[in-house]
Design brief:
The protein is an alpha/beta fold. It has a domain of about 150 residues: Collagenase (Catalytic Domain). Helix content is about 25%, strand content about 25%. The strands form two sheets. Strands 3, 4, 5, 6, 7, 8 and 9 form a seven-stranded mixed sheet that branches. It has a two-stranded antiparallel ribbon with strand order 1-2. The chain is globular and about 50 Å long.
Amino acid sequence: MSAITRRIAFGLAAAAAVACGDIASPERTDLYEWRLFVPGAGGGTDTLSFHWRQSDLPVRVWVEDVAGLPGYADRAIGVWESGFFYREFRGVRVDDSTTAQVLIFGNSAPNLALGVTRLRSALAPECSGATDLDVSEEHTQLRLPIRIFIDPVLPETEPATQTCLALTTIHELGHALGIFQHSPNATDIMFADPAVELPSELDQGTVEALSHYPPTLEPVRP
Protein backbone atom coordinates (compact mmCIF):
# COMPACT_ATOMS: atom_id res chain seq x y z
CA MET A 1 0.00 0.00 0.00
CA SER A 2 1.43 3.39 -0.96
CA ALA A 3 1.95 6.25 1.51
CA ILE A 4 -0.91 8.20 -0.07
CA THR A 5 -3.21 5.19 0.14
CA ARG A 6 -2.32 4.60 3.80
CA ARG A 7 -2.91 8.27 4.65
CA ILE A 8 -6.29 8.44 2.92
CA ALA A 9 -7.39 5.09 4.33
CA PHE A 10 -6.59 6.26 7.85
CA GLY A 11 -8.53 9.48 7.29
CA LEU A 12 -11.52 7.59 5.97
CA ALA A 13 -11.60 5.32 9.00
CA ALA A 14 -11.44 8.28 11.36
CA ALA A 15 -14.16 10.18 9.51
CA ALA A 16 -16.58 7.36 8.76
CA ALA A 17 -18.89 8.02 11.69
CA VAL A 18 -19.54 11.65 10.77
CA ALA A 19 -19.33 11.33 7.01
CA CYS A 20 -21.79 8.60 6.20
CA GLY A 21 -24.97 9.28 8.10
CA ASP A 22 -27.33 6.40 7.50
CA ILE A 23 -25.19 4.77 4.78
CA ALA A 24 -22.46 2.40 5.90
CA SER A 25 -19.02 3.29 4.59
CA PRO A 26 -17.44 0.58 2.44
CA GLU A 27 -13.94 -0.40 3.46
CA ARG A 28 -11.81 0.49 0.45
CA THR A 29 -8.04 0.87 0.35
CA ASP A 30 -7.68 0.71 -3.43
CA LEU A 31 -7.71 4.43 -4.13
CA TYR A 32 -5.60 7.47 -4.97
CA GLU A 33 -5.59 11.09 -3.79
CA TRP A 34 -8.68 12.90 -5.11
CA ARG A 35 -8.64 16.07 -3.02
CA LEU A 36 -7.33 19.37 -4.37
CA PHE A 37 -4.87 21.41 -2.30
CA VAL A 38 -4.86 25.16 -2.88
CA PRO A 39 -3.21 28.18 -1.20
CA GLY A 40 -5.25 29.36 1.79
CA ALA A 41 -6.09 32.95 2.67
CA GLY A 42 -3.86 32.85 5.76
CA GLY A 43 -0.82 31.61 3.91
CA GLY A 44 -1.39 27.91 4.56
CA THR A 45 -2.97 25.25 2.41
CA ASP A 46 -6.70 24.57 2.08
CA THR A 47 -8.13 21.22 1.09
CA LEU A 48 -10.97 21.08 -1.43
CA SER A 49 -13.15 17.97 -1.35
CA PHE A 50 -16.69 17.40 -2.52
CA HIS A 51 -19.38 14.84 -3.12
CA TRP A 52 -23.07 15.09 -3.97
CA ARG A 53 -25.46 14.83 -1.04
CA GLN A 54 -28.36 12.42 -1.10
CA SER A 55 -30.68 15.44 -1.24
CA ASP A 56 -28.96 16.54 -4.50
CA LEU A 57 -29.77 13.29 -6.32
CA PRO A 58 -30.36 12.64 -9.08
CA VAL A 59 -27.77 15.13 -10.28
CA ARG A 60 -29.25 17.05 -13.20
CA VAL A 61 -26.97 17.18 -16.24
CA TRP A 62 -27.59 19.38 -19.29
CA VAL A 63 -25.68 18.53 -22.47
CA GLU A 64 -25.19 20.61 -25.59
CA ASP A 65 -26.56 18.71 -28.58
CA VAL A 66 -23.39 18.58 -30.66
CA ALA A 67 -20.87 15.89 -31.62
CA GLY A 68 -23.08 13.16 -30.20
CA LEU A 69 -22.44 14.41 -26.66
CA PRO A 70 -25.92 13.60 -25.27
CA GLY A 71 -25.38 9.91 -25.99
CA TYR A 72 -21.86 9.98 -24.54
CA ALA A 73 -23.19 11.74 -21.43
CA ASP A 74 -25.96 9.17 -20.93
CA ARG A 75 -23.37 6.42 -21.10
CA ALA A 76 -20.98 8.23 -18.75
CA ILE A 77 -23.74 8.70 -16.16
CA GLY A 78 -24.57 4.99 -16.33
CA VAL A 79 -20.92 3.97 -16.08
CA TRP A 80 -20.34 5.97 -12.90
CA GLU A 81 -23.67 4.94 -11.36
CA SER A 82 -22.73 1.28 -11.77
CA GLY A 83 -19.52 1.80 -9.78
CA PHE A 84 -21.26 2.67 -6.50
CA PHE A 85 -22.25 0.05 -3.92
CA TYR A 86 -25.17 1.95 -2.40
CA ARG A 87 -26.32 4.26 -5.22
CA GLU A 88 -24.48 7.22 -3.72
CA PHE A 89 -24.60 8.81 -7.16
CA ARG A 90 -27.47 8.97 -9.60
CA GLY A 91 -27.72 11.30 -12.57
CA VAL A 92 -30.30 12.31 -15.13
CA ARG A 93 -30.00 14.33 -18.33
CA VAL A 94 -32.34 17.34 -18.49
CA ASP A 95 -33.43 19.68 -21.29
CA ASP A 96 -33.48 22.88 -19.22
CA SER A 97 -29.97 24.19 -18.61
CA THR A 98 -31.21 26.64 -15.95
CA THR A 99 -32.14 23.76 -13.64
CA ALA A 100 -28.99 21.71 -14.20
CA GLN A 101 -26.24 21.16 -11.65
CA VAL A 102 -23.74 20.13 -14.34
CA LEU A 103 -23.44 21.65 -17.82
CA ILE A 104 -21.58 19.88 -20.65
CA PHE A 105 -20.56 21.99 -23.64
CA GLY A 106 -19.15 20.74 -26.92
CA ASN A 107 -16.60 23.48 -27.47
CA SER A 108 -13.41 24.94 -26.07
CA ALA A 109 -13.39 26.34 -22.55
CA PRO A 110 -13.60 30.15 -22.46
CA ASN A 111 -11.04 32.28 -20.66
CA LEU A 112 -10.73 31.34 -17.03
CA ALA A 113 -13.07 33.42 -14.88
CA LEU A 114 -12.01 34.93 -11.55
CA GLY A 115 -12.30 32.41 -8.73
CA VAL A 116 -12.65 29.42 -11.06
CA THR A 117 -10.31 26.44 -10.83
CA ARG A 118 -9.89 24.64 -14.14
CA LEU A 119 -9.11 20.93 -14.28
CA ARG A 120 -7.68 20.55 -17.77
CA SER A 121 -7.25 17.05 -19.09
CA ALA A 122 -7.60 14.63 -21.99
CA LEU A 123 -5.25 16.57 -24.24
CA ALA A 124 -5.36 13.90 -26.95
CA PRO A 125 -4.89 14.63 -30.68
CA GLU A 126 -8.54 13.74 -31.28
CA CYS A 127 -10.26 15.74 -28.52
CA SER A 128 -9.68 17.69 -25.32
CA GLY A 129 -11.58 18.26 -22.10
CA ALA A 130 -11.76 20.56 -19.11
CA THR A 131 -13.90 20.99 -16.01
CA ASP A 132 -14.39 24.35 -14.28
CA LEU A 133 -15.03 24.55 -10.54
CA ASP A 134 -16.30 27.90 -9.25
CA VAL A 135 -15.11 27.92 -5.64
CA SER A 136 -15.87 30.72 -3.19
CA GLU A 137 -13.03 32.90 -1.94
CA GLU A 138 -13.11 31.32 1.52
CA HIS A 139 -13.00 27.83 -0.02
CA THR A 140 -16.22 26.62 1.59
CA GLN A 141 -18.70 26.69 -1.29
CA LEU A 142 -18.83 25.19 -4.77
CA ARG A 143 -20.99 27.45 -6.89
CA LEU A 144 -23.20 25.53 -9.29
CA PRO A 145 -23.43 24.63 -12.06
CA ILE A 146 -20.19 22.75 -12.66
CA ARG A 147 -19.16 23.41 -16.26
CA ILE A 148 -17.57 20.74 -18.45
CA PHE A 149 -16.08 21.42 -21.88
CA ILE A 150 -15.41 18.63 -24.38
CA ASP A 151 -13.89 19.77 -27.66
CA PRO A 152 -13.52 17.52 -30.72
CA VAL A 153 -10.22 18.45 -32.37
CA LEU A 154 -10.45 16.06 -35.33
CA PRO A 155 -13.67 15.37 -37.29
CA GLU A 156 -16.25 13.85 -34.98
CA THR A 157 -17.07 11.20 -37.59
CA GLU A 158 -13.65 9.59 -37.17
CA PRO A 159 -13.71 6.40 -35.03
CA ALA A 160 -10.70 7.59 -33.01
CA THR A 161 -12.49 10.87 -32.24
CA GLN A 162 -15.62 9.03 -31.17
CA THR A 163 -13.58 6.85 -28.80
CA CYS A 164 -11.86 9.95 -27.42
CA LEU A 165 -15.16 11.77 -26.87
CA ALA A 166 -16.64 8.76 -25.08
CA LEU A 167 -13.78 8.28 -22.61
CA THR A 168 -13.27 12.02 -22.13
CA THR A 169 -16.94 12.46 -21.18
CA ILE A 170 -16.55 9.76 -18.53
CA HIS A 171 -13.32 11.40 -17.32
CA GLU A 172 -14.75 14.90 -17.02
CA LEU A 173 -17.90 13.65 -15.28
CA GLY A 174 -15.56 11.97 -12.79
CA HIS A 175 -14.25 15.43 -11.90
CA ALA A 176 -17.85 16.60 -11.37
CA LEU A 177 -18.36 13.70 -8.95
CA GLY A 178 -15.52 14.94 -6.76
CA ILE A 179 -12.29 13.47 -8.17
CA PHE A 180 -10.50 16.82 -8.23
CA GLN A 181 -7.02 15.43 -8.88
CA HIS A 182 -5.78 13.28 -11.71
CA SER A 183 -4.71 9.74 -11.02
CA PRO A 184 -0.96 9.09 -11.37
CA ASN A 185 -1.72 5.81 -13.15
CA ALA A 186 -2.10 5.58 -16.94
CA THR A 187 -4.39 2.57 -16.45
CA ASP A 188 -7.08 4.76 -14.79
CA ILE A 189 -9.79 6.75 -16.59
CA MET A 190 -8.91 9.70 -14.32
CA PHE A 191 -5.33 9.86 -15.58
CA ALA A 192 -4.61 13.33 -17.00
CA ASP A 193 -4.56 12.04 -20.58
CA PRO A 194 -6.71 8.91 -20.34
CA ALA A 195 -6.31 6.07 -22.81
CA VAL A 196 -8.56 3.47 -21.17
CA GLU A 197 -12.27 3.49 -21.98
CA LEU A 198 -13.79 2.65 -18.58
CA PRO A 199 -13.04 3.35 -14.90
CA SER A 200 -10.55 0.97 -13.34
CA GLU A 201 -10.84 -0.64 -9.92
CA LEU A 202 -8.76 2.24 -8.56
CA ASP A 203 -11.14 4.78 -10.10
CA GLN A 204 -14.13 2.96 -8.66
CA GLY A 205 -12.52 2.60 -5.24
CA THR A 206 -11.63 6.29 -5.18
CA VAL A 207 -15.06 7.62 -6.18
CA GLU A 208 -16.73 5.24 -3.71
CA ALA A 209 -14.42 6.38 -0.90
CA LEU A 210 -14.79 10.10 -1.54
CA SER A 211 -18.58 9.79 -1.32
CA HIS A 212 -18.12 8.87 2.37
CA TYR A 213 -15.42 11.44 3.17
CA PRO A 214 -16.35 14.74 4.89
CA PRO A 215 -16.57 17.37 2.13
CA THR A 216 -15.09 20.83 2.60
CA LEU A 217 -17.24 22.35 -0.16
CA GLU A 218 -21.00 22.83 -0.04
CA PRO A 219 -22.78 23.03 -3.42
CA VAL A 220 -24.75 26.27 -3.73
CA ARG A 221 -26.47 28.34 -6.36
CA PRO A 222 -24.93 31.81 -6.79
